[in-house]
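Folds vary. Our protein:
___
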Amino acid sequence: MDRLRDRVSSALRIEDHKLVRELLAECIGTFFLLLIGTAANVQAAAVAGGNMTSCHIAWGIGFMFAVYLAASVSGAHLNPAISVAQFILGNISAWKVIMYSIAQLIGAYLGTAVSYFGHHDDLWKLDGGNRQVTGRQGTAGLFTTFPTAYMSTWGSLLDQIIGTAILAGLICLITDKRHRIPSGFVPPLAGAVMSMVAMTFGANGGFAINPARDLGPRLFTLCAGYGWEVFRFVMRWLLSRRLLI
């Protein structure tokens, strides 16, 4: 019996499975990012005096701690666009890009779910329980991203391409070993990059700049009762990332 228990214990030891640990790190890090970011969005909308600046700062701080959570295990990509960039640089395999992206998507979905249920009463205050994507009582945009009414299709494409390029480029910059940036300083710098992009490109389309951050919450809002309207702009989202890659 003791021998069987030892075998089972050995098989379940996560530290012996490097890829599993990396995928869990990506999932947990992305989970935390979406939990903090979307919760900030809901709170800003529900509380008098809330504003976009508080959301931008919260997203940056959330990203900083998400990177701290995952960096030592997986490198804290937390974003399929970053994983693709690392693949282009030759740092990871194509297989890892796929696996990391799936883990990030799951984390984004779960983080949004916890944020949604944690702020359930706030959402009732905003929409009275009538889950809408658009309109004065629309709340889907607090979790996923949609372009503002004045944005054209090509304007939205360009907005996402530029925002994602800035994020991916600067993350690669601050993690480049040739710059000799101490590893402990990378997460705060990454958080500053996130807040910077949010403050400069956030108003146009919600600064998705991250396929997992966009698609994970979009899938959750579909399941939460917002309906298929949440995918109205999905083709624009897919095309923008295809052009970037």
Notes: The mean pLDDT is 85.
